[in-house]
Prior knowledge:
It is a single chain. Helix content is 37%, strand content 29%. By secondary structure, it is α+β, with helices and mostly antiparallel strands. The strands form 6 sheets. Strands 9-8-11-15-13 form a 5-stranded antiparallel sheet, with no helix packed on it. A 5-stranded mixed sheet has the order 10-17-16-12-14, with no helix packed on it. Strand 8 (128-131) and strand 9 (138-140) form a beta hairpin. The protein is elongated, with a radius of gyration of 33 Å. The relative contact order is 0.09.
Amino acid sequence: MRAVTTRSRRGRALRSPGRRWAPLLALIALMCAGACAPAAPPHPEVRFEGGGIGARWEAGGGEAAVATLRDAAGAAVTRVDLPEGASAAFFPVPWTPGERYSVEVRTASGGEGIATALAPRREGPVEAHLLAPFGQDRLLLPAEASLQAPPGGAAEFGVEVLAPRDRPVDAVVRIAADPAAPDPSPLLGTGEGPPGARTFRARLVPGGAPLVVALRVPVPPGGRRDAVEVRIADPADPGGEPLAVLAGSVRVEAVSRDVLAGRVELLAWRFPSDPLGRPLLDRPEDAVHLPADWWASLARAAGARVRARDAGVPWAHDGLRLRNAGDAALSLVVSERIVAAGTDREAPAFRPPLREEAASGEISQLVRVPASGEVRVALPLHVGRAARPGRYQRELRVSALGLSEPLWTRRAPLEVHRGDPLLAGAFGSAVTVGFAGLAWIALSHRRWLSSRPTAELMTIALFGTALSVIGFAADLLGTVAAAVLGPFQVLVLGLVQDLLRYSLVATLLLLAPRPGTAALAMTTGFGLHALALGGVSPTGLLFLGTAVALQESLLWVAGVTRGRWAEPGTPFLAQWIPLAAALTTASAASAFASLALHSVLYRLFFAPWYVALVVLVPSGLYVVIAAAVGLRLGRGLREVAP
Length: 642
């Protein structure tokens, strides 16, 4: 009867942790599911345009997406990576009339939408497009385009005639200028007709280059309307009937500068941003951090580079969101330069390296804002070697295409820092502790291994293998979480990297409460992870040494790996408080040291709120919970152990 009672008690002890922590595990699963829940799947609509295939859909979740174009056999023709909030894609590839194509859109959270359509068959020997404004929108002739520009400015449009597929043809593009408006001036093309008209001719051959025409038209106060005509003739019969005649027109509406300025709204403006204009929230705002002069001199003396200084690579991007409040699309020129704070004097150290823009010191970008729509703009910001610490300003100008005067101008601060004593001290401390931890492993590993029974070493190896598996899972989860949550990925990633990992460490310490237990488990996990990924980096070894030195020393000071901390019968709080204090302090210090190493070695500076978030939540709160979870699990395992 005693044996039955003992088995029953052991069985309850073994099942108790699972029942007790089941609600917590369920809550964690719900948190992960809620954070990564996909938005409504996109439903693209395929459209065939000149020079490519386009697709549109409703961007319900505002997520980044990948659009893939597939042919009739299902093979991928090309793909486009889209930023957050994108609801359209364009594939600049030639399409075959009558062929079936599919567009597949996948969002970052796993949403998927597929649409299939037949390409229209071309009518006539060629295909022609109206380019209005030139270089942006493309309409299949016959068509009518509508543009808006301020009076006294200029608008640009053009015509494109694609080469035929089967035979040569003679193409003639004629632009009949509005009699009440000033004559247009050709920007691109060949040939010129009588006054008031522009005629461009070219012989198009199969597989050859298309005929492209571009004109700049002045905008009178009452606007203007120009006619476009494309005639296609047979070279063997120049005097005969044309093979095709395609007509169109371009209507330019004169809108005052003040009205246009009121339609363009600046919704957001943040530096730094990524190349797609999305703000990097975990980086310090409105600031550029440069290495200290002594650090740069030391790195050059050692033959190393502090940061890649390719003149063509921007330091970062200045991201902004523009909204068009009007009922017609707007063509804008967005430009930016860096000036000394409180003055109009340009700062030469921030001049772009491009020859065309270096003279003015401005970076410019042509932007097409759809009616009642928004666009993201990313302006590269270059920082030269001559940049000195101080306060500057980013001067943003938004102009209508064809108008020299800007619609409006905005300014935002920019601070340049060289070196940081606090960061230098944290980096030096992290390097010192890291090398001390590596030396500790090298000098003590034989004693740690020889003083333990084989069963205990097998237990440590098992937990070390589990830690490496957690590392693999964190790598996979981190890729998805970063795409969906951005800087807040640490809240989800910490559930694996910190909560689960430190739960295993706490369990192992209760089963083998001796100096070197945590170090052997972490070294085993690090080695397996490094072997699977194919290499060991110096920074990875430095991170390992820092974690080992901090954990082993704090666990010993707290009495976890010495004394009677793990004796059976010890109250739960008497074990949890010192264990949680040691692991939390070590985890927070390791996280801060890791951020310092990343800042100095990789020039990845972090915003103060992001540093506090990483140190307090994943490396603090999650580890406190992990200590309790690990102790409960360790007590259950120790009671049923033979």
